[in-house]
Request: fold
Amino acid sequence: MVKQLIDSRIVSTPDVCGGHPRITDTRIRVVDIAALYNADKSAEEISDEYDLPISDVEAAMTYYFANIEEIKTLLEKDEAFIEQMKRRHTSKLPTV
Reply:
């Protein structure tokens, strides 16, 4: 089930991008846009980098600022999952 979060620009689907809020019809997550914004990229630069309309970048940032705690929780779950997988599956690559 697709959940539309801000008009029709931001959606969340359990089986796409781990359920993270994302820009509709893309796999670009709100958190990806926010990370660039927090790295001092302008909306125009982000728009160019992802080939998105500025309105989608602005919708992503609006969602991010309105739901920072939800985004942090999703990232913490992702990090916990990564750590769990690292413990279960050791790398076969030699360490340097």
Summary: The chain has one domain: 3-88. Residues 68-88 form the longest helix (21 residues). Strands lie at 3-6, 10-12, 22-23.
